[in-house]
Amino acid sequence: MLVLLPPSETKALGGDGAPLDLAALSWPELTGVRAGLLDTLVELAGDRAAARTALGLSERQDDEVARNAGLRSAPTAPALERYTGVLYDALDIRSMTRAQRARADRRLAVGSALFGLIRGTDRIPGYRLSAGSALPGRPTLRALWRPSLGPVLAAVDELVVDLRSGAYAALAPVPGAVTLDVLSERPGGTRAVVSHSNKAHKGRVARLLATTTGEPGDVVRLRALLRRAGFHVEHAGGTALTLVVPAAAAN
């Protein structure tokens, strides 16, 4: 089972690893696109105004531009320790046992605007680039990534659970992947899409899938695993699952 996570805009500072080595990252067939984007970000950082516009930043976020300027020399950390925020708080990898972390390292991957797809163990620096960023003089990130990332994802020969957000999933969809929508349900039965805590719920699901000793091979078995763990999951057909949470837990 491969669980695809979205990245986060917020990232932990520092790291104790050597500077970025693109050749050491998983899925080396993506190295060409990674290298081109890395060069673009470093060069773009030389023009702060242009960088702010391309990356959707304000002047108060010039530290993010400076971070991109140092991408080649900055220390690295495992991706699962680099990304922070609501989903990664719920995933809570630091509380995992050694056996659980080993399973998480095998099963979790992150969809990234800069790296395309990386394992949780891949060492990366902090950076700023979102799926919706528009880099001057370059095609859209979707146009850049789909020709190489699409075949990589299509070649995965195990169950894929795609928890990426829409913008990252659009970089390269995964044929046959299981997806998860989160809905809140009021006492009267009315339902609404969960927005604020969507990431937290997906983080809890990701933690279960990362640490379980089970190996579901299809959407039906996956739903059964989630339900045994206490999640209210519905399956109306196909490969889409719906996680239903009480309205009181959706905030």
UniProtKB/TrEMBL annotation:
GO terms for cellular component: cytosol. Signal peptide: none annotated. One of its GO terms (biological process) is response to hydroperoxide. This is Peroxide stress protein YaaA. It comes from Geodermatophilus africanus.
